[in-house]
Amino acid sequence: MKFNHLNISTTKLYRIISLVVFNILEVVNSFFYKILFEDENSISNKDTLKYWKDRIFYIVSVAVITCGGAIMFCVSYKVYSRGDTVHAIVEVLIYIIITIVITRKHLSVRVRKIFLTQVLYFRSILFLITTGLIGSGIICVLFSLILTICLLEKKLALRVIIVNIIILIILTILLIYGYLDGIYMGKYKIEWFMNVMHNQACTIILIFLMNTLYKGLENQAQVIKRSKELLKESEIKYKAIIENISDIVLIVNADGKLKYNSINLQERLSWVSPDICNIPLWENLYSEDQNNVKEEFQALIEVDGLKKTMETRYLDKAGMVCYMEITAVNLIKDPNINGILLNYHDTTQRKMREAKIIHLSYHDSLTGLYNHSFFETAKKKLDTESQLPLSVITGDINGLKIINDSLGNVEGDKLLVTIAKILDGSCSKEDIVARIAGGRFNILLPKTSREVADEILRKIMVACEAYNKKTLCDLYNISISLGNATKTSTNEFLDSILKNAEDYMYNRKLLEDKSFHSSIISSMRSALFEKSQETEEHAQRLVKLTRSVGQAIALTNQQFDELELFSTLHDIGKIGTDNQILNKPSKLTNTEWVEMKKHSEVGYRIAMSSSELMPIAEYILAHHERFDGKGYPQGLAGEDIPLLSRILGVADSYDAMTEDRVYRKGMPKEDAINEIIKNSGTQFDPRIAKIFIKILTNKESGYNV
Predict the structure, then answer these.
(1) Number of folded domains in the chain?
(2) Dihedral (Cα; 163, 169, 175, 176), 10-degree rounding
(3) Where is each PAS domain found (predicted)?
(4) Of 278, 466, 467, 635, which has the most beta carbons under 10 Å away?
(5) Would you call 651 helix, strand, or coil by DSSP?
């Protein structure tokens, strides 16, 4: 036990002594760095040749200051003891000068290197001369030359070598001719030449060796430098990529706990727990997905190099369910990773786009109801015994075309959306309500009897009536013709059931459509007259004027009926004209006039959509044509213009000239007649114009001016 105790004590003592020595060396090292270099980090780059030259300079300088001091003291004391005081003083001065110069930090390191190498070289030459070949002078010369190669640049070192050769040649000549016989070196004339030759040969060989070594070091330093530059560039590039990509890179251990994360973690995944480093990764995910991700993760760590991709969900800060794709690779055995490498890719936006695409592929973009494609799919899916009785309701909006033609597609779309909301609101979530095309709608009612389907149909009709009472639309009431049928047996074909519902719907439409169109036309006529009191009075005057012309040219009864209807509704297209244009007190601009001229075509489309107005559709379209072909919209000329349109053209112009307008006073009737005469054959049919003027000037007609 004592031995063990002694052993432990000795070990502790050794550690303490080692620590003390290490600390002393650190202090000494730091001290010499401070006195030799401006900055302690000035020779920190080990990948350059300059580092090694500066390092050698540091070592030699420390050796000169420390060991050189001890040698100087010994030599000085010895020569002083022999009575050579001058020599002792010179030794001390040389040491002091060397120490002062090499520790002057304001001098560049290069200058101090040159000074140090040259002082040591000439000190070695002096030592050689005074001690001869027996002393270590020749060795000191060789050492100083090697040191010169180590510390100085190639060109400068080469100059020193040349100077050395010249000095040795001079010494050899002096020795041969006896000029050095009086000194100690003079005793070795015979041996001198051989030693000097060997010394210089060794010096040259060492120079080549050192040069080769330095070239290798320099090349290696350049390679290392370039490699570091490339590595740094690569690090910067990959750092920039990691910082700016939307994905998050993580490394977790076998327990799923975080070891490394890209710096964009908090930016991209602000919803993660602040304690993410201490909990498994799956605990940050959506609760319903945690077990699945954990199982996939555990299966992953069992196979080295295995790669898995998982889709999972998470809750963001707002509590909304979002989506993410996790790609995981088992790199536990890879010494550079030593864990599971994960890539988090947020797929929320992609999922939303996919959901939108799927929604658009199965839904009508205008009404939001299912489309024809989805209806066909649902029809096949629900056509099973478990869904019996399976009822269908089919419907078609009444008057959609006339509303589109007269009021525009915006109003027609509004009608479609309104009907769609009523249909959807009258059915349950299990029912399939779909817009098939245009104003056609189909409804699938699984597990719904005929009686319940009849009740739903009545519910829709009541909802339409309630809407009409609530909105009190002046132009039209919403209306849809409906039909229904029910499949009660697997022996029946669903397409046949749907055909029965369509037949029922079309039968109802025949009854409802005509009265609905008449209702719309009547509503439009009333709305048109309410837009401007002048318009209604204008129509009444035109009926009277055109009838007089018709009587003069002996029109048929059918033509009289058409002429009266035409005179009343020729401007029905103005129902779609902006009120501000229609009642503008000043002259219309070019743009407004283009808009105003559209009412002929709008009126034509309205008339063509109604069987009642269809006979006068062409007259409405042509009632602003001119006899010379300069009218609108088709540019018809002469008798290509329908007769009734030519009659109305004269009467309409006369009434427009003689009646007051919001932007001008009406002209006298005589002036109006003169205008008609003036434009006869250009704007007006000359035969009709002549008859019209005759009627106006005939006292018996009641139009005597």
Answers:
(1) 4
(2) -170
(3) 234-304
(4) 467
(5) helix
Distances (CA, A) of 610 to 374, 520, 603: 33, 10, 11
Q: Are residues 72 and 206 in the same domain?
A: yes
- Distance separating alpha carbons of residues 501 and 122, to the nearest angstrom: 123
Q: Are residues 384 and 345 in the same domain?
A: no
Cis peptide before 585 (omega within 30 of 0): no
> Can you spell out the DSSP letters for 135-200?
SSHHHHHHHHHHHHHHHS-HHHHHHHHHHHHHHHHHHHHHHHTTTTTTSGGGGGHHHHHHHHHHHH
Q: Is residue 128 part of a domain?
A: yes
Residue 280: asked if its preceding bond is cis (omega within 30°), the reply is no
**Who contacts 43 (Cβ-Cβ below 8 Å, separation ≥6)?**
37, 50, 51, 54, 55, 58
Q: Match 């025949």 to its residue by tokens.
A: 510
For 562-612, the pLDDT digits (tens) are: 898 888 888 888 877 887 887 787 888 888 888 888 889 988 988 887 777
Residue 175's pLDDT band (cuts 50, 70, 90): confident
Q: Same domain for 347 and 377?
A: no
What is the distance between the alpha carbons of residues 347 and 326, in angstroms, rounded to a whole number?
10
| Rounded CA separation 582/538 (Å) | 14
| pLDDT above 80 (res 274) | no
Contact call for residues 529 and 535 (beta carbons, < 8 A): yes
pLDDT band at residue 700 under the 50/70/90 scheme: very low
Structure tokens at 39: 């900055």
**Residue 142 banded pLDDT, cuts 50, 70, 90:** confident
The pair of three-digit structure tokens given for residue 512, joined into one six-digit string: 């409802």
Distance of alpha carbon 605 from alpha carbon 598, whole angstroms = 11
Q: Residue 185: what pLDDT?
A: 64
CA geometry: angle at 502 spanning 501 and 506, to 5°? 120
400, 493: one domain: yes
Residues with Cβ < 8 Å from 530, sequence gap 6 or more? 474
Residue 221 lies in a domain: no
My answer on whether 598 and 471 are in the same domain is no
Question: 181-224, pLDDT tens digit by residue?
Answer: 766 666 666 666 667 777 667 777 776 777 777 777 777 777 87
How far from chain centre, in Å, is Cα 18?
62
Residue spans of beta strands (DSSP E) within 277-431: 307-315, 321-331, 339-346, 390-397
Q: What pLDDT digit, counting tens, does each position of 309-360 carry?
A: 999 988 887 888 889 899 999 998 888 888 998 888 888 888 888 888 888 8
Q: Characterize the bridge pairing of strands 339-346 and 307-315.
A: unpaired
